[in-house]
Sequence to fold (540 residues):
Amino acid sequence: MRRFLAGLAVAGLLLAGCQGTPDDAGAAAGAPVQGGKLTWGIETEPVTFNPHQYAQAKARLLVWNSFEALLTHDDKGGYVPWLAKSYEVSADGLTYTFKLRDDVTFSDGEKFDAAAVKANLDQLQVPGYAPSVLSTQLKNYKDATAVDPATIEVHLKQPDVLILDFFASPQGAQIAPNSFKSPNLKAGGPDVFGTGPFILDRYTKGQEVHYKRNPNYNWAPANAGHQGAAYLDEITYRFLKESSVRVGALTSGQVDVVEGVPATEQELVKADSNLTFSRSLNSGTAYSYYFNETKAPFDDIRVRKAFRDAVDLDAVLQGVYRGTATRAWSILSPSGPFYDASLEKSYGNNPAEANSLLDQAGWSTKDADGFRTRDGQRLTVRIVLSAPFVRDKRDILAQAIQAAVKQSAGIDLQVKIVDQGTATDALNKNEFEIFDNSRADTDAGAALTLILPKGAPINRHGYNSPEIDQLVAQSSATTDTAKRKEIYLKLQQLTVTDNVTLLPLYAPADQIAAQKKVGGLGFEPTAGVPGSAYNVWIGK
Fold:
C-alpha cells in the first residue's frame, strides 16, 4: 500500500491556499484582527449554492466558505488532507482508504463521519441529481464502505487517479446528510449545510448573499493560514455584474473588496494609494471557441481553419483587454504543467489563407453585405452565450471577433446573449455552430475528461475518435506524471493542430482589488481563483 500522511504546514495561505496576495495588503492591514463585517462585490451570481452542482469558476470562492472536501491542494498541485487526515491507495489502484477527522460537525449539528461521506457519494448516484459528475469524475466509481466512523473505503471499477481531484473539488465537497431532504437541495442556500468556516444564512436573488461566522469551526487544513474560527464575523457578497459599478463601489468605499477588475479599470485601481491589486492565472483549460463539427459549415476542416486564420487575435485581445490578457494557443491554460508551448505562433492571423480555404470549400461568392455565400446561403455561424457565465467582457470579445471574421473573410458570426435556460435549449437542439468554454479545474485531466471523449458532458464539438478516448482513459489510469504529460501533449496536438477543434482565445485570470485595511486576501493554489474568506480580516 502507498500511504499519504497529513503534515504540510504552509503559513500565510488562504483556506485551500493562495498563489499571491494583493500588493502590500498584509503590511497595510496590520496583524490579523478578530471580528468585523466585510462587503465584497462579485461579478457573477451563482446559479446554485449546492457544491455538487458547481459549474461556475466565479462561484468557487463562495463554495469554500460553507463547504469543505476531504482533500485540498498545495501550490504544486499535490494533495493536502482536509476533512480526511490521510489516505491510502491499494497496489492495484482500485481501493482508496480515507482516514477521517473525528472532530468535525456540520453547521446543522450533524456529525461528520464515514457514514456522511458515503451518504454524499450515494446522493451523487441518484439519477438526475448530478449527471455530469457521475459521467466524468465518478465514471469509474463502484461503491463505498464505511469501515468504521473514521474510515471509509472507496472502490473503483478501474484505476483512476483523478478520483483524488474529485475529493479535492467542489463537486466532492461534503453536504450534511439531513440536507438531502431539503426541497431546495439542488439550488442550495440557507437550508443546505456544510462544515465550512461560514454559514450561508441569507440570500436575496439578484442582489446579495450573506454569510455569518461558524463559531464552532476548528478543522482548517494545514495550509489554511491559521487555525480556529474565521476572523470575520460576517461577509456580504453583492452581485455587481457591471465592472464599472464594481470598481466604483470600491473606490467610493461602498464595498471593501471586489473581484473581476477589467483592463479598463486596472490602472485606475493601481494608481489609488488607498487600494491594493493582485492577479492570478486560472488553471485548467483556456477560454476557447469550440467548433460544432456535427453539421455545416464546421464539418469541413477548411472552414474551421479559415475561421481561425481570419482573426488577428493579438489585435483583438489588445483592443478588448488593453494588454492585460494572456493569449492562449492550446486547449490547456499556459499556467499548468502539461501545456504545450510548441503550439505558440503556429497558426492564426492569415486572412489570405482564410479566404483561399473558403474558396476551396465552395464559399466563393459574396452577397450585397459582403458575407460569403454558397448555393445562395450565407456563411452564418452562431454562438449562444449564457448570461450567468459571461465574465471578463466576453460579450465584448465576441463582438470584436464578429467584426474581425466579417472584415477578413466575410463570415457572418451571430452573437446571442441569453438566459441559461435558453442557452441550454439551444445547445440541446444543436442550434449553434460555436460554443465557448473554459474550466478552472486544478488537474487538467479533469477538464479534458469533461470535454474530449465521446459522450462527455461538454463534448458539444462532436470530434470523436477511438484514439482520443483511449488517450483520456490512459491519462486517468496512470500516476506517472511524465506519462501523463506525454499523453496531454498528444491530445493538444490532435485537437489544436490536426483536427482544428477549437480557437483558443486567452487564459482566464482573476483579479482582486481591495481597501488597504483588508488583509489575508489571495488565490487558491494551482487553481488560481480567489480563495474563500477564511483567512481574511479587516485591520483596525
About this structure: The first helix runs from residue 25 to 29. The longest strand covers residues 141-148. Confidence is low (pLDDT under 50) at residues 1-25.
